[in-house]
Amino acid sequence: MVRQSRVQLKRAYDPPSLRDGTRILVDRLWPRGISKAKARIDLWLKDVAPSTVLRQWFGHDPARWSEFRRRYRAELRRQPDALAQLRALARRGRVTLVFGARDERRNQAVVLKDLLADRGAKRVRRAAPAR
Questions:
Q1: How many CB atoms lie within 10 A of CB 95?
Q2: What are the pLDDT digits (tens) for 51-99?
Q3: Distance in angstroms (rounded) separating the CA atoms of residues 47 and 51
Q4: Is 48 exposed, middle or buried (0-12, 13-18, 19+ CB in 10 A)?
């Protein structure tokens, strides 16, 4: 189970902090106008980013958020190794999912954080005895 407090979110344009832990870029494209030195990314997990088709379809339109979440989760099910790598890093210590989107409430990093938290909750529910 990954504790919610071990996973934080941060825009690539916000300054890195010592409290970030492992900084993981979860975008398929490098954020515009920011150098690799300034971003201080420890790992770039392109395979957990939404596909180009899905990203372009979504276009950060709030009206498409629910459907984006559904489609993105479906894409992630086809990337079990990349998701397992992200989960393992989060279990070892604090991670910051870094993203370039302006909208801090509706982007792929939010979905990933929720997915990491959900996975642990599902395991707990399965382990509980049936009544």
A1: 24
A2: 999 999 999 999 999 999 999 999 999 999 999 999 999 999 999 999 9
A3: 9
A4: buried
